[in-house]
Amino acid sequence: MAFTQQKSELHFTRARKSIPGGVNSPARAFGAVGGTPVVMDRAEGAYLHDIDGNRYIDYIGSWGPQILGHRHPAVIDAITRELGKGTSFGAPCELETELAEMVIEAVPSIERVRMVSSGTEATMSAIRVARGFTRRNVVVKFAGCYHGHVDSLLVKAGSGALTLGTPSSPGVPAGCTADTLALEFNDVQQLEDAFSKRGAEIAAVILEPVVGNMGVVVPSKAFLQALQTVCKKNGSVLIFDEVMTGFRVAYGGAQSLFGVRPDLTTLGKIIGGGMPVGAYGGRAEIMDVVSPVGPVYQAGTLSGNPVAMASGIATLSILKQSNPYPRLEAMTRALVAGLSDLARKAGIAHTIPQVGSMFTLFFNPEVVTNLAIATKSDTKAFARYFHAMLERGVYLACSQFEANFVSAAHTDDDIRATLEAAEAAFRIVTS
Ligand code: KE4
Q1: Hey, is 346 helix, strand or coil?
Q2: 265 close to 281: Cβ distance less than 8 angstroms
Q3: Active-site residue, 241 included
Q4: Domains along the sequence of the chain with CATH
Q5: What is the pLDDT of residues 203-247, one digit of tens each?
Q6: pTM value > 0.85
Q7: For ligand 1, which residues put their CB under 6 angstroms from it?
């Protein structure tokens, strides 16, 4: 069937009249690649189906949550069962404790954890807790990392902020970011200099331990070591933002791969299994400043609601029992090797960093270690590649500066079909 987006285009004209840009998150707006976003109707396993009847092999998985694939039967059953008992009580329920205990068992650096409803809430709260615990104000982040749309962290941010050219958003008063220090990812010297000058003022350092939001960027061993050293020496809180990497790159997250124990960790995406869940947690002595135990206030109407908890519990239970990680790694390696081989044959300068089932095809000959290098990528070539793949039934992240994800529902046939599409797409990119 010829690829058509007629219904999507019609609907999008309508959506734009009532929703800014027709989207509830700018990351979906196709801002970096042009064209009209595809309006989805349903999904199952590794596939998305749009309202024009097109089927796509999905490498976004709702920007990370769908590691099991869409509509996993056990997750749907758990949600349906819980719906039969209600949606939200506004009072404690057993499932909140059950999910908290699963997170604590999976991530050894977490001794106490608080559920919220998004990754943004998780990072916003973690920053406040770190500032309350240390009674300091300065927070260090890294250019290209995205931690949600928290005022104080919308400085040189990645993901949609970077894609749409607003890494430091209007609407954020200078006072909100006056205490935010944005450094270069992987720059040990700059980190050490910042701490030698202002270490006594620094409440926290927050980073994506494997960056997804400038495209996939891996930290150097020296950088990871320096982060732990300067934070320990200066009494600053090391925060791993594992909203994307948590339960994605390993059941224990990136920190389990790197053997690092951050002081606080933020989570989201997979721990909700497609329902709205975020979380922040870490050392008990830090988390005990959180209300009602301590004075640092944080709250949320739907935090820990039973339906979202049921979805998260089912998702983590399946991950723990089935351990899909070796197969996810192998399938992603095969895909990345195939893409690289085809891109090389087409004469396309590229690198494809991969960690577990996260990867990015950078249209860039250099290994991307920070934002300055990432932004040298050929985003016009990326846009042509994106649309050529979309028209061939492959749904990629709609920006050069994002990660793509393989799910446990993807098959070898899906990988083969993706590579077939890529062979044609690379010819279009270079024509
Ligand atoms: P949410 O508030 O979108 O649930 O989480 C914010 C967040 C925090 N930390 C990291 C490392 C993240 O990747 C995110 C959100 N990721 C983006 C995609 N890169 C979500 C997609 C979107 O904004 O629509």
Answers
A1: coil
A2: yes
A3: yes
A4: 6-60+324-430 (3.90.1150.10), 73-321 (3.40.640.10)
A5: 999 999 999 999 999 999 999 999 999 999 999 999 999 999 999
A6: yes
A7: 25, 27, 63, 118-120, 123, 146-148, 159-160, 208, 212-213, 241, 243-244, 268, 278, 402
